[in-house]
């Protein structure tokens, strides 16, 4: 039963992405039978090979407890943080006197899920100016990350955690409890 729900959940998500990528001018009525059939076949093939990696415990985890809504709500938050970081790095790199203070800082997180830690570290890495170097469990049995930060304004773990994680951790925690 676990494999079937993992396959079904991965199929639904893959198929939704297929339809989203093919929609032109946000008009679903323009999709023809060929696109719908090929999308179902591609989603089934993707699900066949990747469902065991996508859903370890419950294949329908994304469709429970408003997680899909939380994911949709996270997208504009992430885009806004991405835009802010891009402008910040662009201003720093284009200024006549480059005023940066690169450094490696440790941040801590309350996330325990492997998926949650991976998503948080990817959000941090994909935001310009920061790169996640390592994820580990520190001496207090708390998950921590080493982050290379283009402008390390503080070395304090708690303050750096708040600045770097920003709003990401809140949404990631709601997705991967």
Could you describe the 3D structure shown?
This protein is an alpha+beta fold and 177 residues long. It folds into 2 domains: 1-61, no CATH class; 65-174, no CATH class. It contains 6 helices and 3 strands; from the N terminus they run αααβαββαα. Helix 1 packs across helix 2. The radius of gyration is 20 Å and the shape is globular. The model has no long low-confidence stretch (mean pLDDT 82). It is found in: Cell membrane. It is a multi-pass membrane protein. GO terms for molecular function: antiporter activity; monoatomic cation transmembrane transporter activity.
With strands numbered from the N-terminus, the spatial order across the biggest sheet is: 1-3-2
As a whole number of angstroms, the C-alpha radius of gyration is 20 Å
Give the helix tally: 6
Averaged pLDDT, please? 82
Tell me the structural class: alpha+beta
* Helix fraction by DSSP (H/I, runs of at least 4): 55-70%
Shape: globular
Low-confidence stretches: none
N→C terminal distance: 22 Å
What are the secondary-structure elements, in order, as H or E?
Answer: HHHEHEEHH
């Amino acid at each position: 039963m676990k494999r079937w729900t993992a396959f079904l959940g991965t199929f639904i998500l893959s198929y939704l992405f297929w339809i989203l990528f093919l929609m032109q001018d946000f008009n679903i009525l323009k999709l023809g039978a060929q696109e719908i059939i090929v999308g179902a076949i591609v989603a089934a093939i993707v699900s066949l090979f990747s469902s065991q990696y996508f859903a370890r415990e419950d294949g329908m985890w994304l469709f429970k407890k408003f997680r899909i809504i939380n994911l949709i709500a996270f997208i504009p938050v992430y885009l806004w943080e991405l835009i802010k970081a891009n402008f910040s790095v662009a201003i720093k790199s284009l200024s006549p006197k480059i005023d940066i203070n690169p450094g490696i800082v440790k941040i801590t997180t309350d996330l325990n899920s492997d998926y949650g830690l991976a998503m948080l570290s990817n959000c941090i890495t994909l935001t310009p100016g920061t790169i996640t170097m390592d994820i580990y469990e520190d001496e207090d049995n708390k998950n921590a990350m080493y982050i290379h930060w283009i402008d390390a304004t503080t070395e304090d773990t708690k303050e750096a955690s708040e600045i770097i994680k920003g709003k990401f951790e809140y949404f990631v925690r709601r997705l991967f409890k």
